[in-house]
Design goal:
Layout lengths: L1 E7 L5 E2 L7 E2 L8 H13 L9 E7 L5 H8 L5
Antiparallel strand pairs: 1-4, 2-3
């Protein structure tokens, strides 16, 4: 499964998206690329292009992992 985030090149922080985006360590995760495009199109259409001038779209691959494997790796008991 893939997901996307918008990252500021200068700071390495991620956008919170929304109408007044700010940049934080943990930003908004988009689970559909179409949602990223819609968000960026909105800002372009309403003249707020400067919000994302110094940004990149970062794509992540998510892998599903069994919680039992994680507990075993951490040396914890599985209930």
């Amino acid at each position: 499964m893939k997901c996307w985030m918008i990252r500021d090149r200068r700071t390495g922080l991620y956008s919170t998206a929304g109408l007044l985006p700010c940049f934080v360590k943990r930003g908004k995760v988009f689970y559909r690329y179409a949602d990223v495009r819609t968000h960026l199109t909105y800002f372009n259409h309403y003249g707020r292009r400067k919000a994302y001038v110094e940004c990149d779209i970062v794509e992540f691959d998510l892998n599903e992992v069994s919680s039992k494997d994680i507990f075993k790796e951490l040396g914890l008991m599985v209930l």
